[in-house]
Design brief:
374 residues, alpha+beta, four-stranded antiparallel β-sheet, two-stranded antiparallel ribbon, 14 helices, 6 strands, elongated
Length: 374
């Protein structure tokens, strides 16, 4: 009965992973994180198959059943370490994207997996992790905790990195991402503790599947609110910000909405083509990111060649000056580029003005076009 229950749980996990894989297969954000995430799903899927096979084989007697149990259990222990390693790579791509791609660093990071593999190869003779008795029953070795301790760095290091990022980050987006990743650690850790303390209870992989589902849902939300060209927030996120202002206000502190428009963008498209025009928009997005770096803002593309920034009024001037600085820096570059010019308009508002959102936007829009006509 217990075997059937665990098989059903594993089957549910495989269905969830199958849905995630099918929906993520053709996505690539250019950072390598998406590919690592898909690989993580595939690896976890394989573990669920192996875990199910172990429940099906264990205690059954048929031709070569003991040998098959040894092989499946050994591969299962290998993937236990390998999946956690892939998780480490995936999270590291958020914090050390350049470093994790270096062969030397990747080799050093692989040491726990290599050690785990060596112990698995020695296990058949010395029963380090487990052994299979004459009744074809899997029995956990007293030293099996070695397999847990070996891969602990893959869990601890990303968690500490997230904690440090959260403590030093001034950008609200970085804080949210670090909190999200720390939360994702909780379920697998609970699964590991239960599996270690209560022999015969297997929860770690279904907990891992739920964490991957949580990541997937977060990705889906970001896809809905992200502009595919510039990777900034899109008009949908802009509307959500307005809804939040209308519903909750923004307290007593004064806030600002800044509109940014690319001057003569139609002429750029007509002269150089839409592909070049897209490159200009991507460059503008980069300029805005630099100007808003480490600031608590909501930055996005409103549509076409228009962008927006929601921020506190106290930093509005700093952001606008930063935009002007980075535009000048862009125009001083040696490589062939069009002379970039941006028109900027802004409007301040407080929480008690939340019911006059339309007026706030019209003021910012009018200021931007007055700037354009100068």
């Amino acid at each position: 009965m217990v075997d059937i229950l665990y098989l059903q749980v594993n089957l549910i996990g495989m269905v969830i992973l199958g849905v995630i894989i099918m929906n993520q297969q053709n996505m690539d954000d250019g950072t390598g994180r998406q590919r690592a995430f898909i690989f993580l799903n595939y690896s976890t899927f394989i573990v669920l198959i192996l875990d199910s096979a172990m429940w099906l084989i264990n205690g059954k007697r048929f031709l070569f059943s003991i040998e098959l149990n040894w092989i499946v259990s050994s591969i299962y222990y290998f993937f236990n370490g390998f999946v956690v390693f892939v998780w480490y790579v995936y999270i590291s791509l958020f914090f050390n994207q350049k470093r994790i791609r270096e062969p030397k660093y990747l080799l050093i990071s692989s040491i726990p997996v290599i050690l785990n593999t060596i112990f698995i190869l020695l296990n058949y003779k010395y029963n380090i992790y487990f052994y299979i008795n004459e009744s074809n029953t899997y029995i956990r070795s007293p030293y099996f905790l070695i397999s847990v301790f070996i891969v602990i760095p893959y869990i601890v290091i990303p968690f500490v990195a997230c904690l440090k990022l959260y403590q030093r980050a001034e950008n609200i987006v970085e804080k949210k991402d670090s909190i999200l990743i720390m939360k994702i650690h909780i379920l697998p850790i609970i699964g590991v503790l239960v599996q270690v303390l209560f022999y015969g209870i297997s929860l770690i992989w279904i907990c891992s599947v739920l964490s991957l589902l949580f990541i997937f849902i977060n990705f889906q939300n970001k896809r809905i609110s992200m502009d595919p060209l510039t990777q900034l927030n899109n008009r949908h996120q802009f509307d959500i910000c307005l809804q939040n202002i209308q519903r909750d206000g923004v307290g007593t502190e004064s806030h600002s909405i800044i509109f940014i428009d690319v001057d003569k963008f139609k002429a750029i498209n007509d002269k150089y083509g839409h592909v070049f025009g897209d490159k200009v928009l991507i460059s503008v997005a980069g300029i805005l990111r630099k100007a808003c770096e480490k600031e608590e803002v909501v930055l996005g593309r409103y549509g076409g060649d228009e962008f927006y920034v929601f921020c506190k009024s106290s930093i509005r001037g700093k952001i606008i000056n930063g935009i002007s600085h980075y535009v000048n820096e862009y125009n001083r570059a040696d490589d062939f580029r069009v002379a970039l010019s941006l028109s900027i308009g802004s409007s301040d508002f407080k929480g008690n003005e939340a019911n006059r959102v339309k007026d706030i936007l019209e003021r910012a829009d009018k200021a931007m076009y007055e700037n354009k006509l100068k």
